[in-house]
Amino acid sequence: MFATKTFAEFIRHYLVVKTHTSVKKNGVYSSYKDYFISNGLSSEQALADLFKFASYYDQILNHKSADDRFNKILEHINVMDSKVVFPYLMLLMDLVHTAKINQEEAIQLAHILESYLFRSKACQTPTNRLNKIVVGLCDLSKEGGNLRLRLLRLLKANFPDDRKLLESLMEVDLYKQGNHLAKLSLVILEEHKTRETINFDDAQVEHIMPQRLNAEWRLQVANADKVKEQYGGTLGNLTLTKYNQEMSNKPYSEKKEFYKDSNVSLTREVAETYNQWGKEAIIDRTKELTDELIQIFPMPNIKEVNEEEITGEYTIDQPVNVTGKAPVQITINENEYPVKTWKQMLKIFLNDLWNRDSLNYDWIKEHDQISRMLFRPHNAPATLENGTVIETNFSASVILAIITKISEICDITDQVSYTVK
C-alpha cells in the first residue's frame, strides 16, 4: 500500500495521465501494479518517470513552476480545491518539458480550464462529470492531437456563458459558497486592477452592508433586512480590507471615510463611486465587478467546435447532436465495446449492466417511463443475454437519452462514454 494520502493521490493522478482511465481511490496500488507490468517497465524507468511527474505535482500543489503566469492559474485552481484537474495540468507541464507545446500554449489551455472552473463554481453548476472530462483530455490521440479543440469540445456543453454568470452573481450568496470563492473573486479583481500580488491569507472579506444590521442601517436603507437577506452575500456587497473588526457594523457614512484611505483599490472605489449604500448600489456594483470577471475569465470561442465536426469520444451526459452520425464504441467502466449501430449500443450497455449488477434492473423497472419504453416491446424487439426482450425502435438521440437516464439511476454516469464517427 502507498504510505501517505498525498502520495497515493499523486499516483492516482499520474495513472490518469498515463492510462487515460479513471482510478478508484481504493484501487491505486493494484492499478499501478497493472500499469507497471503491462508496460514492461524496469524499476529504474518507473522511478525516473515517477520522480519527474512528482516534481510537476509538487509545483502544482505549491504553485511554484518556472512561470509566474502559470503559477497564478495554479494558485487559483488550488484555492478552488479542484484537484481533479491535476492530471491535465501535469500533462501540460510534461508537454512543455518535452517541447511538444510551448509555455504560452500551456498557459492558454490552463486558463480556459481555470475560467471553466471559476464560472462553474460561481454558477453552482454540477462538476460531477469533470473527472471523466479530465480522463478524456489526457488522451492525446483524440482530435488528432489538437489540444485546444479537445478541451473546448469536452467543456462546451456545460461552460456557463456571460449571461448565466451575471444572473448567478446577482443572486448567489458568494460569501457562503465553499472554496473561498468570494475572497478569491475579490483578490483576483484587485490583482487585475493593480497588477500587484495580494497576500490571499492576509486579506479579509468585508460586508459593506454588515451581516448584523443595527438601527442606523435600518433607518438609512429602505427595507434593510430584506435587502441584506437578498443581496448581503452577493459580490457587489463585498470588498477587501485589513481592518474588518474595526469596521464592524458602522453606518456607511463612517465606513466610507475608512474606505477612502484603504490601500485596496477595490475598496477605495466604493467610497469614490457611491455616496449612499443600499439595494441599487449593490446591484450596480455587482454588474460592474461581474463585467470585469467576464474579461478576466472569458468565455472561449466555442464556435471553433462546429456541429459538422462532431466525431470522437463523448461522456454519456454530454449534449451532442448525433443525427447522421454512427457509433463506433461504447466504454463502460473502462471496458471498451466496438459497435456499429445505436441499437447494438443499447443492447451492449444493458447486457453489461446486467452482468455487473442484476439489481440495477430492479431500479430501472421502477422508473415508469424507462420501463414503458424498454420492457414493453412491440415494433423492434431484441433479446438480451439474460433472456429479457426489449424494444429497440428508437432514434439515436432517444437511445442516448435512455442510456443517460439509466446511468443516472444506477449512479454510473462518470463511467460511461461513447465514440462516434
Overview of this protein structure:
The model has no long low-confidence stretch (mean pLDDT 88). This protein has three domains: 5-156, no CATH class; 166-296, no CATH class; 309-420, no CATH class. The protein has helices spanning 5-19, 28-38, 43-61, 68-79, 86-97, 103-122, 130-137, 147-155, 162-171, 181-194, 215-220, 224-231, 244-247, 252-260, 265-273, 279-296, 342-356, 359-365, 368-374, 396-409; strands at residues 204-207, 238-241, 312-315, 327-332, 335-338, 381-383, 389-391, 416-420. With 421 residues, it is an alpha+beta fold. Helix 9 packs antiparallel against helix 16. It contains 20 helices and eight strands. Helix content is 54%, strand content 8%. The strands form three sheets. A four-stranded antiparallel beta sheet has the order 3-8-4-5, sandwiched between helices. The longest helix is centred in the N-terminal third of the chain and has 20 residues, at 103-122.
